[in-house]
């Protein structure tokens, strides 16, 4: 279980900065995309993108160093070598800047740093560590998927130089290469190997970097337009969670992704293509002033809800000194020997004892028979378990072992003391919390209200799924898949992850609306719910009325998202003119699979925020691909897969559900996660088997 929990990754804290003061102060640790970097020579703060800046990132990859358990020697050594042997090779106009960072041996951390630095147009990134054979050596697994081109010559040169010194060099797995305009060199971790390798390759680096910068990039605009490298989009995916300010995590990536090829296509959507991460942030922001509030519910109806108040105990528990064992209450100081049994104390019954003359002269020892959970009578300070006694006669026992004072007694208030806080605002109520509330006799409590939802399936072609469709079907009628799917999906997430929403008015919460402006407007404007989910009608077709309508009656915040499936996802707010009540409108694409993926990625975090959860998005883990998977060349893909825990390899593995066409419901069936795949590039059209990828868990992973 621990392993499983360790595997759960959060993306918010994966780039532990380690500002090692031993390093000459030419080096500045970076914390985020917008950090300024200081010039090594004159300490002048400068913008990161100036053409004459020669930025080099030095990345030490080590769990131990990042945890402070070891001092990094290799990173500082790289800086020294570069400063003494590389900087003199540069022209006078180049300002040489080194940026140093330590990350743990985690794929997400390594990729996060490297993608950030390549976006910042670093000329060179040198990593050290994580290239060996041990299970935590993950540098090649992190770097390879990011590369546009491999630089095997550099690797061979490094291996050769080390092999001349030690055969152990063959256990290094360098994977140098080029990403965008950045040369990435992966050195081993040992400081000795770092010296040997770096000094060997150094003479070739200036020319290599010149060539990379001069290289003419073929026109690929039809493939990847102006988007930042899409692997970066993968990195941007957040684990959204609330903070003290009710806020949300901040992306480190580009906010908007250019949609078109730069050419003004007449039929192209006018909406800016936003990254998934930024879309989620926009949505969460709009949740803030929705004013859903709290409500009182009966304890037994609070299961799965989030508590809206701290809960304190107004009693001590146990309320009386209670026995932990079946046995005899006695006084510890009386020790071993024969005891007279004066009566009994059974759980749930009053104490039943006779009062003997317990005077000084009387040498008799007394005890009371007692059961687990029963009140310990006054005058007795311990309980001996029945196993350590022997019955002599009806009224006498023999105590066979010594007990200490207080033994096997739960003192008053030892479990819960009067006035103590037992549950906090924001806690989720599960069966244990219900048990706790029951123990304390709390019948009602305040919980966060659940946002109400209405679901509208749009489309002239749709009929309720129960309807017969005649065999000619000349109108091209289809059954409404989205309503029943979303209806059960809502039930499912409420059951699996805790309650986050309620359907407005039973069957009335689901309607089929024709592709007709007035019907759609009436349906949206007449809905009183906090959230409206529409499906269909958001693309560029003639009957796709949803976006123009929402422009008219509300505000469209998002009209296009850089993902597959789900690109036309639209998010708007509509404010009722009379009541001033704001409604969030999620317009999901019509294809059933797209609508489900968009529900998990965009709607669910909003529902969870509104219903009081502090963790908004579902958990993400890293998993090993069990097969080679083709990449979409245009957008990052939410690839439906089956996630299982591999007990042998002690890691998650993910198996694709097959063809990912967005109309193919079967790709969703039996899937319990979405792999978040980067968009491919002309040089990388597949992710190989065993590549480690991030995946969003959407369902119970017990099979
Ligand atoms: N509720 C639904 N159930 C099943 N299929 C649907 C549903 N809504 C739309 N579709 C189908 O999804 C595809 C896309 O529909 P469309 O309205 O163009 O969606 P969008 O404009 O959002 O892409 C069409 O083939 C359509 O018939
Ligand atoms: Mg339609």
UniProtKB/TrEMBL annotation:
Gene Ontology annotations for the cellular component aspect, listed alphabetically: cytosol
Transmembrane segments: none
Reaction(s) this enzyme catalyzes, per UniProt: adenylyl-molybdopterin + molybdate = Mo-molybdopterin + AMP + H(+); molybdopterin + ATP + H(+) = adenylyl-molybdopterin + diphosphate
Key words of the record: Magnesium, Metal-binding, Molybdenum, Molybdenum cofactor biosynthesis, Transferase
SMART domains: MoCF_biosynth
Domain MoaB/Mog: 57-208, 454-609
Gene Ontology terms describing biological process: Mo-molybdopterin cofactor biosynthetic process
Required cofactor(s): Mg(2+)
Example GO molecular function: ATP binding
Pathway given in the UniProt record: Cofactor biosynthesis; molybdopterin biosynthesis
Keyword set includes Magnesium: yes
Segments of this protein annotated with the region Disordered: 230-264
Family of the protein in this entry: In the N-terminal section; belongs to the MoaB/Mog family.
Role: Catalyzes two steps in the biosynthesis of the molybdenum cofactor. In the first step, molybdopterin is adenylated. Subsequently, molybdate is inserted into adenylated molybdopterin and AMP is released.
Protein name from the UniProt record: Gephyrin
Taxonomic source organism: Tieghemostelium lacteum
